[in-house]
Specification:
Blueprint lengths: L3 H26 L9 H29 L1
Length: 68
Amino acid sequence: MQSQRQSLIEAITNVVLGYALAVITQIMVFPWFGLQVSLGDNLAIGAMFVMISLARSYALRRLFERWR
């Protein structure tokens, strides 16, 4: 069984890697759609999604641990 601390560490690691991938993807894809976004804006957009993703990932992990 995974502890709450281990769940949080796993979720943070997953989200940090996802954040980096999301920002890189935004930088590459946004211009294809005519969106010109500064690096700062890309980082801010990514940060908003990181907070949501972290909460979702942690909650799902705890839910599955409870079902286990």
